[in-house]
Amino acid sequence: MNVTIADIAKATGLAKSTISGALNNKSGFSEKTRRRVLAAAEELGYVPNEIARGLSSKSTGSIGLIIKDITNPFYNHITKGVQEIAGEHGYTVFLCSSGEEHQAEINHIQAMVRKRVDGLIIAPLLEEVTFDHFFELKEQNVPFVLLGKIQGLSCDTYEFDDYDGGRQVTEHLLSMGHTRICFVRGPKTSKAAKLRYSAFINTLKSHGIEADERYVFQNANGIADGMAVGKQIAAMPDRPTAVICFDDVIAIGVIKAVMEAGLQVPEDLSIIGFDDIEVNTFPLTTVSIPTYEAGKALAWTLFDRILQRRTSGFQHITFEQKLIERASVRQLYNK
Amino acid sequence: MNVTIADIAKATGLAKSTISGALNNKSGFSEKTRRRVLAAAEELGYVPNEIARGLSSKSTGSIGLIIKDITNPFYNHITKGVQEIAGEHGYTVFLCSSGEEHQAEINHIQAMVRKRVDGLIIAPLLEEVTFDHFFELKEQNVPFVLLGKIQGLSCDTYEFDDYDGGRQVTEHLLSMGHTRICFVRGPKTSKAAKLRYSAFINTLKSHGIEADERYVFQNANGIADGMAVGKQIAAMPDRPTAVICFDDVIAIGVIKAVMEAGLQVPEDLSIIGFDDIEVNTFPLTTVSIPTYEAGKALAWTLFDRILQRRTSGFQHITFEQKLIERASVRQLYNK
DNA sequence: TTGTATGCGTTATCAC
DNA sequence: GTGATAACGCATACAA
């Protein structure tokens, strides 16, 4: 049913190897036979079997991308960047989402290895998990690039400077007169959440302020959690004056809930997020993160590895985060 | 370097076929050898090669999903639904985005066929394009399900009732007293855009109102276009009282631009979108579309085809669209 | 310039 | 129960 190079060999009276060579534009074939081969291939409706090609050539022309959440714009832009570069290389990408679940991440990585992807780009869970599967991956000799760093694992990494982002955000709030600040942490498996939080604590401390335990919310993830948190904040008797959210999605959830509860932002409550997502009407003060660029960069270095253009040591690159002041933080006069 | 069943055959002194059978839990092997094989595989660090398996078994365990825009929540939710069902079947998905470009769609489909995916889910461009590649795909005998219908092409399809969505939205605006209504059409390759627009025109006409040409914007796609349109609307001397946007992303762009220009929504301008995207603070009146459910349904019927559970005729399912009234449309008293 | 032979890692069809 | 052996579709080294 499926036409193979054997069929077109038979049809043209040439050998399989000639067909293969001519089809792949290898040198050493007359223009005449090349055309003959191409014509026959066209006529028979030949579609190269990349599976067979992969088995024989040790390269599948596909890479795997493992993110944490398909519905978060943060990962959408990373994905977009990766896709773009992959496309430029004639590659195709398997997209997997771990959904912040350890076992899912493990399963996806193993599935990708079994599918013999030429390389892997992974946004790994970094807190409260084990990393055996990464060391195993390393031994399996499939090139991979990480969005985040894992202790003792040598590979190319990209990071965003989350600590500094947390610091900027806290400094900003402080400079606007806020001291009763609420902090909504992201997923407990997120190192970004941890870093931003410790930056928050430390920056507060350096200004002689102690963070209030009651004002920190753990493990928020997604808009639903954001709304739940917002509801709680709105109902607090000694409400904070500002809240730092792990990301814009959560911030948007908080804003929705808080407004539904009859509060105004920033008049009654100042709010800051992270990621600077574009599709949003609210003038949210946030921290911009170059996700699209990071996606492209991740893919570039992966392809450098795959195509062996670079065999030198592993590189570790950190992207800056940058506070974008808009109108969701109010200047406080009377502390 | 890579350990194969041949290696584990050598290690155990058994035959390759025995290894293969035992590993795949085929019946007819003693518990003893099965355990021996498993142990050896574990010890040698055997990782099955799905490429080789695919070549031999004619099934790759992967499907392709071709959407139009990775960064649009609409497709994110479809993707999420598809991924979920694929995962349940032990399948992996290639994600491709056509970016509303005809040639990209063609290339992606062909790439997927070359990769011998077991099936394809496609959100095709439906206007101002040719469909030869779909008829070709049909002849290549790879199962596929479409989000949209193509004339003369028999396959399973899902659709959203865009005409009715357009009607609902127009009726609503009319009932709120609006007659000077602006319509922002989506991509010119979008049939949804076309249907909604014709519903708009017809509904208006049935109320004895003629649509104003100056109030229709063509080919908007993404937030940037939405903002550009919003800017233009804000600057119009005889500004419309309401605007219907192809989707929420565009609507959000319009709202941003219009507010930057100093207008209030809905006081100065009423706005309606489509899709009901969740991550959004603005109380946008919009049309909800069951994207996540559709994603799951698309995948279900694809797997029905792949696993031959259903061999009867092709099915065509239409999901309803439902107006969600929030606060972006104002009641007009003096027409 | 073209043809032959072999291998890639599995699965599958047979015998034994 | 288990073991040869032949596909699967292509690439490639080597001959011719």
TrEMBL record, chains A, B:
SMART domains in the record: HTH_LACI
All copies of domain HTH lacI-type, residue ranges: 3-57
SUPFAM superfamilies: lambda repressor-like DNA-binding domains (SSF47413), Periplasmic binding protein-like I (SSF53822)
Keyword Transcription regulation listed: yes
InterPro entries: HTH_LacI, Lambda_DNA-bd_dom_sf, Peripla_BP/Lac1_sug-bd_dom, Peripla_BP_I
CDD domains found in the cross-reference section: HTH_LacI (cd01392), PBP1_LacI_sugar_binding-like (cd06267)
UniProt entry keywords in alphabetical sequence: DNA-binding, Transcription, Transcription regulation
Protein name per its UniProtKB record: LacI family transcriptional regulator
Record organism: Paenibacillus agricola
